[in-house]
User: What shape does this take?
Amino acid sequence: MCYSTSSPLENSDKNSILDVNTLKSYLSKIDEYPIKKIETALPIYSWGIVTNYLGKHKLINALSEKDLKNPSFKKNSENEIEIQKDGFYFGNYLNKGFRIKVEEISDEQLQDVISFLEKK
Assistant: This one.
């Protein structure tokens, strides 16, 4: 299982679904593992981590960066917005001030992990 490299509940700039450097560090000695034929699972999903003004979190599955383009959102960073107007978004009622951080995996990240694992 080559995903879930950290908790989505942590306030971190890292992608909790897959941080390639964390994964490589964790699996650096996998070639010494006694079982040589290991099947792996890679992440091909995305989500949005909603944080309210109390710091409580909720996940919304299948959000991507393109979903963050909305006139009711203020862009805080490349993958995070702040809601500017109360309303229904992605099937959920979200209040002004709530933040959504999108985490998704690029093809380049997947290829990097695949290449690393093939060498191991």
